[in-house]
Protein backbone atom coordinates (compact mmCIF):
# COMPACT_ATOMS: atom_id res chain seq x y z
CA UNK A 1 0.00 0.00 0.00
CA UNK A 2 1.43 3.38 -0.96
CA UNK A 3 0.73 6.93 0.04
CA UNK A 4 -1.34 7.58 -3.10
CA UNK A 5 -3.76 4.78 -2.24
CA UNK A 6 -4.97 6.46 0.97
CA UNK A 7 -6.47 9.97 0.68
CA UNK A 8 -5.24 12.28 3.42
CA UNK A 9 -8.68 12.83 5.05
CA UNK A 10 -9.05 9.05 5.31
CA UNK A 11 -5.51 8.76 6.69
CA UNK A 12 -6.31 11.26 9.46
CA UNK A 13 -9.57 9.45 10.15
CA UNK A 14 -7.71 6.15 10.52
CA UNK A 15 -4.94 7.56 12.67
CA UNK A 16 -7.53 8.88 15.14
CA UNK A 17 -8.57 5.25 15.93
CA UNK A 18 -12.16 6.35 16.62
CA UNK A 19 -13.31 2.75 17.05
CA UNK A 20 -11.98 2.84 20.62
CA UNK A 21 -13.81 5.98 21.79
CA UNK A 22 -17.42 4.76 22.34
CA UNK A 23 -16.61 2.72 25.44
CA UNK A 24 -15.20 5.84 27.14
CA UNK A 25 -18.32 7.87 26.27
CA UNK A 26 -20.65 5.52 28.16
CA UNK A 27 -18.34 5.04 31.14
CA UNK A 28 -17.78 8.78 31.43
CA UNK A 29 -21.49 9.43 30.96
CA UNK A 30 -22.43 6.98 33.71
CA UNK A 31 -20.15 8.78 36.16
CA UNK A 32 -21.41 12.22 35.16
CA UNK A 33 -25.09 11.27 35.40
CA UNK A 34 -24.61 9.48 38.72
CA UNK A 35 -23.02 12.61 40.21
CA UNK A 36 -25.78 14.80 38.78
CA UNK A 37 -28.35 12.62 40.53
CA UNK A 38 -26.64 13.27 43.85
CA UNK A 39 -26.31 16.99 43.11
CA UNK A 40 -29.87 17.35 41.85
CA UNK A 41 -28.89 18.99 38.55
CA UNK A 42 -27.02 18.17 35.36
CA UNK A 43 -24.74 20.86 33.92
CA UNK A 44 -24.62 20.27 30.17
CA UNK A 45 -21.88 22.82 29.56
CA UNK A 46 -19.55 21.23 32.09
CA UNK A 47 -20.44 17.78 30.76
CA UNK A 48 -19.52 18.71 27.19
CA UNK A 49 -16.34 20.53 28.19
CA UNK A 50 -15.25 17.61 30.37
CA UNK A 51 -15.85 15.09 27.61
CA UNK A 52 -13.97 17.34 25.19
CA UNK A 53 -11.00 17.13 27.59
CA UNK A 54 -11.21 13.33 27.61
CA UNK A 55 -11.49 13.21 23.83
CA UNK A 56 -8.47 15.47 23.36
CA UNK A 57 -6.39 13.43 25.82
CA UNK A 58 -7.25 10.23 23.97
CA UNK A 59 -6.65 11.83 20.57
CA UNK A 60 -3.25 13.17 21.64
CA UNK A 61 -2.45 9.76 23.09
CA UNK A 62 -3.14 7.79 19.92
CA UNK A 63 -1.12 10.27 17.87
CA UNK A 64 1.78 10.00 20.31
CA UNK A 65 1.53 6.22 20.18
CA UNK A 66 1.74 6.29 16.39
CA UNK A 67 5.03 8.19 16.58
CA UNK A 68 6.75 6.30 19.39
CA UNK A 69 5.41 2.85 18.41
CA UNK A 70 6.54 3.28 14.81
CA UNK A 71 9.32 0.68 14.94
CA UNK A 72 7.06 -1.96 16.49
CA UNK A 73 4.27 -1.15 14.02
CA UNK A 74 6.72 -1.35 11.11
CA UNK A 75 7.75 -4.86 12.15
CA UNK A 76 4.20 -6.03 12.85
CA UNK A 77 2.81 -8.39 10.21
CA UNK A 78 -0.50 -8.95 12.04
CA UNK A 79 -1.78 -5.37 12.24
CA UNK A 80 -5.54 -4.89 12.10
CA UNK A 81 -8.06 -2.15 12.98
CA UNK A 82 -7.71 -3.35 16.59
CA UNK A 83 -3.98 -3.99 17.04
CA UNK A 84 -0.68 -2.72 15.68
CA UNK A 85 -1.57 0.96 15.29
CA UNK A 86 -3.20 2.64 12.31
CA UNK A 87 -0.08 2.12 10.13
CA UNK A 88 -0.56 5.50 8.49
CA UNK A 89 3.07 6.34 9.27
CA UNK A 90 4.26 2.90 8.20
CA UNK A 91 2.70 3.15 4.73
CA UNK A 92 3.72 6.79 4.33
CA UNK A 93 0.20 8.23 4.21
CA UNK A 94 1.25 10.65 6.97
CA UNK A 95 4.61 11.96 8.13
CA UNK A 96 6.06 11.90 11.63
CA UNK A 97 6.24 15.68 11.85
CA UNK A 98 2.58 15.97 10.84
CA UNK A 99 1.46 13.54 13.53
CA UNK A 100 3.65 15.25 16.14
CA UNK A 101 2.29 18.65 15.15
CA UNK A 102 -1.28 17.38 15.41
CA UNK A 103 -0.57 15.93 18.86
CA UNK A 104 0.90 19.26 19.98
CA UNK A 105 -2.17 21.04 18.62
CA UNK A 106 -4.47 18.66 20.50
CA UNK A 107 -2.60 19.39 23.74
CA UNK A 108 -2.83 23.14 23.10
CA UNK A 109 -6.58 22.88 22.58
CA UNK A 110 -6.79 20.70 25.70
CA UNK A 111 -5.23 23.50 27.74
CA UNK A 112 -7.83 25.97 26.46
CA UNK A 113 -10.78 23.62 27.01
CA UNK A 114 -9.45 22.69 30.46
CA UNK A 115 -9.33 26.37 31.39
CA UNK A 116 -12.94 26.80 30.29
CA UNK A 117 -13.99 23.72 32.24
CA UNK A 118 -12.22 24.85 35.41
CA UNK A 119 -13.73 28.31 35.12
CA UNK A 120 -17.20 26.74 35.24
CA UNK A 121 -16.35 24.24 37.97
CA UNK A 122 -17.31 25.14 41.57
CA UNK A 123 -14.24 26.15 43.56
CA UNK A 124 -14.34 23.11 45.87
CA UNK A 125 -14.03 20.75 42.86
CA UNK A 126 -11.44 22.65 40.82
CA UNK A 127 -8.38 21.02 42.35
CA UNK A 128 -9.65 17.42 41.91
CA UNK A 129 -10.67 18.31 38.34
CA UNK A 130 -7.27 19.80 37.61
CA UNK A 131 -5.52 16.74 39.07
CA UNK A 132 -7.62 14.43 36.90
CA UNK A 133 -6.85 16.40 33.74
CA UNK A 134 -3.13 16.36 34.53
CA UNK A 135 -3.22 12.66 35.43
CA UNK A 136 -4.93 11.77 32.16
CA UNK A 137 -2.39 13.73 30.14
CA UNK A 138 0.54 12.13 31.97
CA UNK A 139 -0.79 8.57 31.68
CA UNK A 140 -1.93 9.06 28.09
CA UNK A 141 1.19 10.68 26.68
CA UNK A 142 3.44 8.66 28.97
CA UNK A 143 1.99 5.41 27.65
CA UNK A 144 4.61 5.34 24.89
CA UNK A 145 6.48 8.65 25.16
CA UNK A 146 9.69 8.99 27.16
CA UNK A 147 10.64 9.31 29.90
CA UNK A 148 7.77 7.19 31.28
CA UNK A 149 7.21 4.80 28.34
CA UNK A 150 4.76 2.90 30.52
CA UNK A 151 3.83 0.30 27.91
CA UNK A 152 7.52 -0.51 27.45
CA UNK A 153 7.94 -1.11 31.18
CA UNK A 154 5.11 -3.62 31.64
CA UNK A 155 2.38 -1.21 32.75
CA UNK A 156 0.50 -0.84 29.46
CA UNK A 157 -2.47 -3.12 30.15
CA UNK A 158 -3.01 -1.67 33.63
CA UNK A 159 -2.85 1.92 32.39
CA UNK A 160 -5.30 1.35 29.53
CA UNK A 161 -7.70 -0.53 31.80
CA UNK A 162 -7.60 2.25 34.40
CA UNK A 163 -7.96 5.16 31.98
CA UNK A 164 -10.87 3.54 30.13
CA UNK A 165 -12.75 2.58 33.30
CA UNK A 166 -12.17 4.11 36.72
CA UNK A 167 -10.47 7.23 35.41
CA UNK A 168 -13.18 7.97 32.81
CA UNK A 169 -16.00 7.38 35.30
CA UNK A 170 -14.30 9.46 37.99
CA UNK A 171 -13.74 12.24 35.44
CA UNK A 172 -17.46 12.37 34.71
CA UNK A 173 -18.29 12.09 38.40
CA UNK A 174 -16.09 14.99 39.52
CA UNK A 175 -17.09 17.14 36.54
CA UNK A 176 -20.66 17.18 37.85
CA UNK A 177 -19.70 17.92 41.44
CA UNK A 178 -19.21 14.40 42.77
CA UNK A 179 -16.91 13.94 45.76
CA UNK A 180 -13.87 11.93 44.66
CA UNK A 181 -13.82 10.22 48.08
CA UNK A 182 -17.19 8.59 47.32
CA UNK A 183 -16.69 4.86 46.56
CA UNK A 184 -19.49 4.67 43.96
CA UNK A 185 -17.50 5.52 40.80
CA UNK A 186 -14.69 3.22 41.87
CA UNK A 187 -17.01 0.29 42.53
CA UNK A 188 -19.21 0.72 39.45
CA UNK A 189 -16.14 0.97 37.22
CA UNK A 190 -14.47 -2.22 38.46
CA UNK A 191 -16.23 -4.59 36.01
CA UNK A 192 -15.29 -2.24 33.15
CA UNK A 193 -11.68 -2.35 34.33
CA UNK A 194 -11.68 -6.15 34.16
CA UNK A 195 -13.33 -6.23 30.72
CA UNK A 196 -10.90 -3.68 29.27
CA UNK A 197 -8.02 -5.57 30.86
CA UNK A 198 -9.16 -8.76 29.12
CA UNK A 199 -9.43 -7.10 25.70
CA UNK A 200 -6.16 -5.19 26.01
CA UNK A 201 -4.25 -8.25 27.18
CA UNK A 202 -5.39 -10.37 24.27
CA UNK A 203 -4.76 -7.46 21.86
CA UNK A 204 -1.06 -7.75 22.61
CA UNK A 205 -0.83 -11.35 21.41
CA UNK A 206 -0.75 -10.70 17.63
CA UNK A 207 1.82 -7.96 18.30
CA UNK A 208 3.97 -10.30 20.40
CA UNK A 209 6.90 -10.77 18.01
CA UNK A 210 7.06 -7.12 16.97
CA UNK A 211 6.81 -5.86 20.56
CA UNK A 212 9.44 -8.31 21.79
CA UNK A 213 11.82 -7.17 19.06
CA UNK A 214 11.74 -3.58 20.37
CA UNK A 215 11.66 -4.54 24.07
CA UNK A 216 8.05 -3.45 24.54
CA UNK A 217 6.86 -5.40 27.59
CA UNK A 218 3.24 -6.27 26.95
CA UNK A 219 1.77 -9.08 29.03
CA UNK A 220 2.11 -11.33 26.00
CA UNK A 221 5.86 -10.62 26.02
CA UNK A 222 6.21 -10.90 29.81
CA UNK A 223 4.12 -14.02 30.40
CA UNK A 224 4.00 -15.52 26.92
CA UNK A 225 0.98 -15.68 24.56
CA UNK A 226 -0.56 -18.75 26.20
CA UNK A 227 -0.60 -17.31 29.70
CA UNK A 228 -1.73 -13.92 28.36
CA UNK A 229 -4.78 -15.55 26.73
CA UNK A 230 -5.60 -17.39 29.95
CA UNK A 231 -5.20 -14.19 31.99
CA UNK A 232 -7.61 -12.47 29.61
CA UNK A 233 -10.10 -15.34 30.02
CA UNK A 234 -10.00 -15.02 33.80
CA UNK A 235 -10.43 -11.22 33.61
CA UNK A 236 -13.51 -11.61 31.37
CA UNK A 237 -15.19 -13.97 33.83
CA UNK A 238 -14.24 -11.65 36.70
CA UNK A 239 -15.93 -8.75 34.88
CA UNK A 240 -19.22 -10.69 34.79
CA UNK A 241 -18.90 -11.57 38.47
CA UNK A 242 -18.27 -7.89 39.21
CA UNK A 243 -21.35 -6.83 37.26
CA UNK A 244 -23.58 -9.28 39.12
CA UNK A 245 -22.06 -8.05 42.39
CA UNK A 246 -23.15 -4.49 41.49
CA UNK A 247 -26.70 -5.82 41.14
CA UNK A 248 -26.52 -7.78 44.39
CA UNK A 249 -25.16 -4.79 46.31
CA UNK A 250 -27.86 -2.49 44.92
CA UNK A 251 -25.48 -0.15 43.10
CA UNK A 252 -27.14 -1.03 39.78
CA UNK A 253 -30.38 -2.65 40.99
CA UNK A 254 -33.60 -3.93 39.47
CA UNK A 255 -34.11 -4.83 35.83
CA UNK A 256 -30.99 -2.95 34.79
CA UNK A 257 -28.75 -4.90 37.13
CA UNK A 258 -30.34 -8.17 36.05
CA UNK A 259 -29.01 -7.55 32.54
CA UNK A 260 -25.55 -8.27 33.96
CA UNK A 261 -26.53 -11.94 33.98
CA UNK A 262 -26.50 -11.81 30.18
CA UNK A 263 -22.79 -11.10 30.39
CA UNK A 264 -22.19 -14.54 31.87
CA UNK A 265 -22.70 -16.54 28.66
CA UNK A 266 -20.78 -13.86 26.77
CA UNK A 267 -17.89 -14.12 29.23
CA UNK A 268 -17.89 -17.93 29.11
CA UNK A 269 -17.99 -17.91 25.30
CA UNK A 270 -15.11 -15.43 25.20
CA UNK A 271 -13.16 -17.48 27.74
CA UNK A 272 -13.77 -20.63 25.67
CA UNK A 273 -12.53 -18.96 22.49
CA UNK A 274 -9.48 -17.57 24.28
CA UNK A 275 -8.66 -20.93 25.89
CA UNK A 276 -8.93 -22.67 22.54
CA UNK A 277 -6.73 -19.94 21.04
CA UNK A 278 -4.20 -20.46 23.85
CA UNK A 279 -4.08 -24.20 23.23
CA UNK A 280 -3.73 -23.81 19.47
CA UNK A 281 -0.24 -22.36 19.68
CA UNK A 282 -1.03 -20.40 16.50
CA UNK A 283 -0.39 -16.88 17.78
CA UNK A 284 1.34 -15.26 14.83
CA UNK A 285 -1.83 -14.13 13.06
CA UNK A 286 -4.63 -11.60 13.11
CA UNK A 287 -7.43 -12.26 15.58
CA UNK A 288 -10.08 -9.79 14.38
CA UNK A 289 -13.08 -11.93 15.40
CA UNK A 290 -11.71 -12.42 18.91
CA UNK A 291 -11.00 -8.69 19.26
CA UNK A 292 -14.50 -7.74 18.08
CA UNK A 293 -15.91 -10.18 20.62
CA UNK A 294 -13.72 -8.77 23.41
CA UNK A 295 -14.49 -5.14 22.57
CA UNK A 296 -18.24 -5.82 22.39
CA UNK A 297 -17.97 -7.50 25.78
CA UNK A 298 -16.66 -4.24 27.28
CA UNK A 299 -19.75 -2.34 26.15
CA UNK A 300 -22.03 -4.23 28.57
CA UNK A 301 -20.32 -2.72 31.57
CA UNK A 302 -20.49 0.85 30.34
CA UNK A 303 -23.96 0.71 28.82
CA UNK A 304 -25.79 -0.92 31.72
CA UNK A 305 -24.76 1.63 34.41
CA UNK A 306 -25.21 4.45 31.87
CA UNK A 307 -28.76 3.31 31.04
CA UNK A 308 -29.63 2.86 34.73
CA UNK A 309 -28.39 6.27 35.87
CA UNK A 310 -29.96 7.96 32.82
CA UNK A 311 -33.30 6.31 33.61
CA UNK A 312 -33.09 7.61 37.17
CA UNK A 313 -32.15 11.10 35.98
CA UNK A 314 -35.07 11.25 33.56
CA UNK A 315 -37.40 9.98 36.27
CA UNK A 316 -36.27 12.66 38.70
CA UNK A 317 -36.58 15.54 36.23
Description of the molecule:
- The chain has 317 residues and is an all-alpha fold.
- Helix content is 71%, strand content 0%.
- The protein has 15 helices and no strands.
- The protein has helices at residues 8-15, 22-39, 44-68, 70-75, 96-120, 123-141, 156-163, 166-175, 184-203, 208-213, 219-223, 225-248, 254-258, 263-280, 288-316.
- The relative contact order is 0.14.
**How many individual domains?**
1
The global form is globular
CATH topology: Farnesyl Diphosphate Synthase
Q: How many beta-strand elements?
A: 0
**For the report, how would you describe the main beta sheet?**
none
The average pLDDT score comes to: 94
Structural class: mainly alpha
CATH class identity: Mainly Alpha
The appropriate CATH architecture is Orthogonal Bundle
Number of helices: 15
List low-pLDDT spans. none
How big is the Rg? 20 Å
Distance between the termini: 54 Å
- Residues in β-strands, percent: under 5%
Question: What fraction, in percent, of the residue positions are helical?
Answer: over 70%
The topology string of helices and strands comes to HHHHHHHHHHHHHHH
